[in-house]
Amino acid sequence: MPSSREKLNYTPSIRRMPSYLTIIRAFQRTGEPYISGTYIANELNLEPIQVRKDLSITGIIGKPKKGYPVEPLIQAIEHYLGWDVEKAATVIGAGNLGSALTGYQEFRNHGMKIVAVFDTDPLKIGTTVHGVPVYSMDSLPSVARELGIAIAILTVPSPFAQSSCDAVVAAGIKSIWNFTTVKLKVPDDVVVQREDLSSGYALLSVMMRTRLNRQLSEQ
Amino acid sequence: MPSSREKLNYTPSIRRMPSYLTIIRAFQRTGEPYISGTYIANELNLEPIQVRKDLSITGIIGKPKKGYPVEPLIQAIEHYLGWDVEKAATVIGAGNLGSALTGYQEFRNHGMKIVAVFDTDPLKIGTTVHGVPVYSMDSLPSVARELGIAIAILTVPSPFAQSSCDAVVAAGIKSIWNFTTVKLKVPDDVVVQREDLSSGYALLSVMMRTRLNRQLSEQ
DNA sequence: TAGATTGTTAATCGATTAACAATC
DNA sequence: TAGATTGTTAATCGATTAACAATC
Fold first, then answer.
1. Cβ separation of B191 and A211 shorter than 8 Å?
2. What is the reported pTM?
3. What digits encode the pLDDT tens for the residues A99-151?
4. Contacts of strand C, CB cut-off 7 Å?
5. Count of CB atoms within 10 A of residue B100's CB?
6. How much is the average pLDDT of A158-170?
7. CA trace torsion B209, B213, B218, B219 (10° rounding)
8. For A174, which DSSP code?
9. Closest approach of chain A CAs to the CA of B193, in angstroms?
10. Mind listing the domains of chain B with CATH numbers?
């Protein structure tokens, strides 16, 4: 029996899908029925062959000379990502980042609806964040069941990451979007995507240093 | 003359560096003078060989049987990332995400100090966000010069992304951390790192769908 | 000393890119 | 029709992993 730990294939391609969607959706407003891979590639500074390879993963078939049919292409990408099925989500930790993510409207376009926020601060419990009610962590199991929550977005301070994660798992939630710096330990049937702001900042930092070095050496 | 568009090497390794730092810093509190690659690998669910390969990029030399000297290792990573040099940064757009990032203390440990926020909303200008003053976009050039701002963190709504980016570039800021969904057009000497929350969510979504399919097929 | 761990060289793996026939 | 664009097969490239000698 394969475990949930097996590696996901096409990871880089999957990461590019949302930006394809953005471009194609914007193009859709022109009313043109077909969009070419070349056009998408130009918009995103990618190679056309890469766009075609990526799109082929979704099973969409293009027409030579014309391109891909816009409406079916959007549906193919959304279906591939599972964004055509609405999922209830919760934010664990009503801090800065948690509040920002709760108010991030774009997720609605991706089939994710944040229906609850959980926190331990008595001053926050009973209030709302961007219209979403804040509950006590104690009520996580019952609220998760009632609202059919499928995804937990973890934005608690790092020292509480693993214990919050354990509570999420105990409440039967099997998908965790982890914004803490902690590598979470979870059962085999729980999937975790870690979002690490520092890793992107590390790339920017090295680009800055590299550019600096080059400028110095070119003088 | 090579352009700033050339591709960065070791991208995956660079992305892992911050998580190494987190583990090593936590280990440092034990007082042990050496940390092994095997230990780091265990903490992060990675292969030891990958940790060793990554660390070798920083130029650090380990001791067989003992491991890497903790203090020099931290310094080697920070120096490689350029995190040993303090840089002034600004957040463009005092919305949800901009405020959250302004209040994110971890950046201070990475040599980045957010010294100004810019917005176009008259109600926000003149106030502070997490203690950082909010300025009018008009004053960007002068404030950027006075405070020596090196990095702009772009968190404006997508329709304003390119124009805000142009203003940043005109103000002489040459490093942009882009949190919008827009692919920015910038001069050759400006580096951009795009942070796309949707791409991580796309991975989580496909993992969820894949797990679901497997569970169905195993029944 | 023995064995854990490093660093290097080679092999494997997966992603990107190139080449090109098919075709609307 | 001619040429732009697709989809497939092969080549290249870069990252990961394996093997193993060196060594504290």
1. yes
2. 0.94
3. 999 999 889 999 999 999 999 999 999 999 999 999 999 999 999 999 999 99
4. A 7, 9-13, 46-47, 49-50, 53, 63-66; B 36-39, 48-49, 52-53, 55-56, 60-68
5. 22
6. 97
7. 100
8. -
9. 6
10. 11-81 (1.10.10.10), 87-198 (3.40.50.720)
Q: How close A205 gets to chain B, by Cα (Å)?
A: 6
- From CA A19, how far away is CA A81, in angstroms rounded? 13
Q: How many Å separate Cα A77 from the centre of its chain?
A: 14
- Asked if B133 contacts B106 with a C-beta cutoff of 8 angstroms, the reply is no
Nearest neighbour of A191 by CB, restricted to B107, B175, B204:
B204
Q: Which residue has tokens 């000379």? A: A65
* Confidence (pLDDT) at B7: 81
**DSSP for A122-136?**
TTTTTSEETTEEEEE
* Structure tokens given for B106: 């971890």
> Tokens 């990871």 identify what position?
A11
- Chain B residues touching A218 at Cβ < 8 A: 1
Amino acid at B66: K
- Nucleotide closest in space to B11 (CA vs C1'): D15
- Pairing state of beta strands B175-178 and B149-154? parallel
